[in-house]
Structures are given as C-alpha cells and as structure tokens.
Specification:
The chain is α+β, with helices and mostly antiparallel strands. It is built from 3 helices and 6 strands; from the N terminus they run ααββαββββ.
C-alpha cells in the first residue's frame, strides 16, 4: 500500500478525474461507504451519490463534462494509529464547451474524511463548499443546484 498521504491524495485526484470524464461508476465506487454533502444536502452511499451526479450535470457529445477540476492547497492530516485521516483542499472547475470559451465556472473547498477499510484508504465523507460561481449553464442541468449565495440574480 502506498504511504497514507499519497493514497489519500490519489483518492482526491481520482474524484476530479471521475467527474470530468462523467465516470459515474467510478464516483459510485469512490463513495461506496461515504457521505457526500453539497448544496442539495447530504447523500449516503455510492449509488445515491452517483445518481445525484447523473441528474445534475450535463454530459456533452464527447461523453465528458468538458471540465477540468483542478485541486490545489491539499492539506492532509493522518492518524495512523486510528486508521483515519482528514483533508482540506481548494478546487477550481474550468470549462470550455461549444459556445463557451475556456473559463473558471466554480471554486470552493473540499472537506474530506477517510478511513482504512480492508487495508486500503477510502472516503468516509466529502463536504463541498462553493465560494464562487461563474457561468454554469453548460455544466448543471438546473441553476437551482447552485448554493443560494452564488446563484446568479436576473
């Protein structure tokens, strides 16, 4: 097993890859034993979390979301004895789609917890806060999926 910090970082980065590629099965597997809290409340288990993504994001003709989730400022704290860890990281979502030039569309913070399960690190919880939002009309199926404090006013 890779060192704890690297294994946990790999999970954080794998999430970005799964979302960008509309890999809903991968999202399901990542969060199989986890809770996921975003603007729509808290979901439990990989199936519910994957269904939420399938419902809320737009998959483009190339089979992706036409996004890149850039994860930065990753801080990981590990308790090897307990087999648990926490992390905090910033995210910036970039998107380019037909009719939408490359631009940031969202940024915020991931607050994660992890545990060792059957010899491997896994997510136990992800809480997402969104601090800033841009044009998500090519990303989300409905703007009400944005947290109220970042929704555009018309």
């Amino acid at each position: 097993m890779p060192c704890a910090h690297q294994a946990i970082a790999n999970l954080i980065y794998r999430y970005a890859e799964c979302v960008d590629n509309a890999d809903f099965a991968g999202i399901r597997d990542l969060f199989a034993g986890a809770a996921f809290t975003g603007s729509g409340g808290t979901l439990h288990g990989g199936d519910a979390i994957a269904r939420m993504f399938e419902k809320t994001v737009i998959v483009h003709e190339d089979g992706t979301l036409r996004t890149k989730h850039v994860t930065s400022n990753v801080a990981i704290e590990v308790d090897e004895t307990a087999g648990t860890a926490t992390s905090k990281a910033y995210y910036t979502v970039l998107q380019a789609a037909p009719g939408l030039p490359l631009q940031p569309i969202a940024c915020g913070t991931y607050h994660d917890t992890f545990e060792v399960h059957e010899g491997h690190w896994r997510f136990t919880e992800r809480r997402i806060t969104m601090d800033l939002a841009g044009d998500v009309t090519h990303h989300l199926t409905h703007p009400e999926y944005l947290p109220a404090h970042v929704r555009p006013t018309s």
